[in-house]
Amino acid sequence: MGAKIDTPMFVLAGGFGTRLRSVVPDVPKPLAPVQNKPFLFYLINNWIDQGVREFIFLLHYEADKIIKFLENSEFKKLNPNLKISYVVEPVPLGTGGAVKFALEQYSIDGPFLVANADTWLGKGVQSLIASPLPSIVTVAVSNVSRYGEVYINDGIVESFAEKCQTYKKGQVNAGMYLLSAGPFLELTETTFSIETAILPKLVAAKKLGATPLDCNFIDIGIPEDYQNFCNWLK
Fold first, then answer.
1. Are the C-beta atoms of 186 and 118 separated by less than 8 Å?
2. Can you say whether the dihedral through the CA atoms of 132, 144, 97, 5 is positive or negative?
3. C-alpha 103: how far from chain center
């Protein structure tokens, strides 16, 4: 188990999950069933094992179902010092807008983690916390075309390549970040993406660190990879 950390984790869990709806029609993507338990159950346990003790869930689509799961879970009973809270976006705000909304709601001005509620990373929290602020986690994949490639030089992200049709190995953005409030609160916009409004500015200023990991990485956003996770867990 990882050392306990005080840094809060924002969990992006407000998406519509349209690509997965053909196989998971009745619940939002984070609650996709895996061995009779929601995918989110495994994520939270994994993050707790890595030392996270404060979660703020950023919700919109079918937020009531995720809130019901969180409030009825055993996580707090098993971990008395655990903090679980949530904010519900009044309208879809994008990944960056959702974070900005939560920062304002909770008056957070220190560093924080951001993670996706549809992506499994076997590890990474402790490595990311030990990285310079701001940083992202990257992983090596056999085919970068689905994600877009991350180019790294001496621990700093040099650039992001757009998704393409080229089949090649490389490092990709794994969707876990260590960030600070400033770049979000400086923006006047309310709806924006971390990937298009925040990260490119940090890259241009040569301030975005990269933490490459060698671990399991599964994004359940499409039916094939959802099934891959179900099979892997067996």
1. no
2. negative
3. 16
Those residues whose C-beta lies under 8 Å from the C-beta of residue 103, and which sit 6 or more positions away, are 109, 112, 181, 184, 185
User: What's the CA gap between 129 and 5, in Å, rounded?
Assistant: 8
Q: In angstroms, rounded to a whole number, what is the distance separating the alpha carbons of residues 93 and 120?
A: 23
* pLDDT tens digit sequence for 171-210: 999 999 999 999 999 999 999 999 999 999 999 999 999 9
- 60 — phi, psi (to 5°)? -155, -75
Backbone angles phi, psi at 167, to 5 degrees: -90, 110
Is the Cβ–Cβ distance between 173 and 209 less than 8 Å? no
pLDDT, tens digit, 9 for 90 and up, residues 59-115: 999 999 999 999 998 888 888 889 999 999 999 999 999 999 999 999 998 999 999
Q: Is the peptide bond before 134 cis (omega within 30 degrees of 0)?
A: yes
DSSP state of 145: G
Alpha-carbon torsion angle 12, 175, 106, 61, nearest 10 = -10
What global pTM score does this model have?
0.94
CB atoms within 10 A of CB 145: 15
CA atoms of 37 and 26, how far apart (whole Å) = 14
Token digits of residue 35: 């061995």
Residue 174 in tokens = 């794994």
| Alpha carbons 28 and 20: distance in angstroms, whole number | 9
